[in-house]
């Protein structure tokens, strides 16, 4: 499911916010390692400052690569970066709020890419019911959403890694070269259809 050509701000009631809170964080859980006993939350695994430092280290590797790859774009090449959402593009497991704040190290790299003509596509395991709140959240935080892929009813029963791989293949079929794929889980990055992958920390599956 891709982004509509127009964005529609959403007005969320308390009930819908509660639904979003309940659905957003667990949405990536399928296909991931479950937290071990005594470590049910990300906060128990790592503090926010450490997570941000660890994310920054990965993005400090991504940015020089992107600068070089963007500068080497072939004539007519449509470059794209694919990003996961939960605890990749957005901070999800460090206290819920809406709109959720961007993961700053990732946003900084994404802004460089979009400012240099690269299209940003978001591939998430979130269900389709969260399409509009998610798109609004991303745009609110400063991401230019070229496409948002969420799981439809059929996709909910598919392996997450296979679903995400298929979405990237579809982006390529639309004529884009995916120069980077950024996520925090192996299910975000496996299956190919990207020139280079960058894995953010998930602390052995304790971060959704």
Defining traits:
208 residues; 5-stranded parallel sheet; 38% helix; hydrolase; Hydrolase; HAD-like_sf; Acid_phosphat_B-like; hydrolase activity
Could you please describe the fold and organization of this structure?
- With 208 residues, the protein is α/β, with parallel strands linked by helices.
- It has a single domain, classed as Rossmann fold.
- Helices cover 38% and strands 16% of the residues.
- It contains 7 helices and 5 strands.
- It has a 5-stranded parallel beta sheet, with helices on both faces.
- Helix 4 links the parallel strand 1 and strand 2 (119-127).
- Helix 3 runs parallel beside helix 4.
- The two termini are 22 Å apart.
- The model is unreliable at 1-19 and 21-41 (pLDDT under 50).
- This is Hydrolase.
- Keywords: Hydrolase, Signal.
- GO terms for molecular function: hydrolase activity.
- Residues 1-29 form the signal peptide.
- InterPro entries: Acid_phosphat_B-like, HAD-like_sf, HAD_sf.
Describe how the helices and strands are arranged.
Elements: H1 14-24, H2 42-45, H3 48-71, E1 78-83, H4 104-115, E2 119-127, H5 131-141, E3 145-151, H6 160-173, E4 176-183, H7 186-189, E5 197-199
Helix pairs in contact: 3-4
Pfam family, one: Acid_phosphat_B
GO molecular function: hydrolase activity
InterPro entries: Acid_phosphat_B-like, HAD-like_sf, HAD_sf
């Amino acid at each position: 499911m891709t982004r509509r050509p127009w964005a529609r701000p959403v007005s969320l009631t308390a009930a819908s916010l509660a639904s979003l809170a309940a659905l957003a964080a667990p949405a990536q859980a399928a296909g991931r390692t479950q937290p071990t006993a005594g470590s049910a939350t990300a906060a128990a695994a790592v503090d926010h400052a450490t997570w941000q430092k660890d994310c920054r280290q990965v993005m400090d590797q991504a940015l020089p690569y992107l600068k070089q790859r963007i500068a080497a774009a072939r004539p007519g090449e449509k470059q794209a970066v694919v990003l996961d959402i939960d605890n990749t593009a957005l901070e999800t497991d460090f206290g819920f709020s809406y709109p959720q704040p961007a993961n700053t190290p990732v946003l900084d790299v994404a802004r460089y890419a979009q400012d240099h003509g690269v299209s940003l596509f978001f591939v998430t395991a979130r269900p389709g019911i969260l399409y509009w709140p998610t798109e609004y959240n991303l745009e609110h935080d400063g991401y230019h959403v070229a496409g948002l892929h969420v799981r439809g009813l059929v996709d909910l029963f598919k392996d997450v890694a296979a679903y995400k791989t298929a979405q990237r293949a579809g982006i390529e079929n639309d004529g884009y070269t995916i120069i980077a794929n950024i996520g925090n889980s192996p299910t975000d990055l496996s299956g190919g259809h990207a020139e280079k992958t960058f894995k953010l920390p998930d602390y052995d599956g304790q971060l959704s």
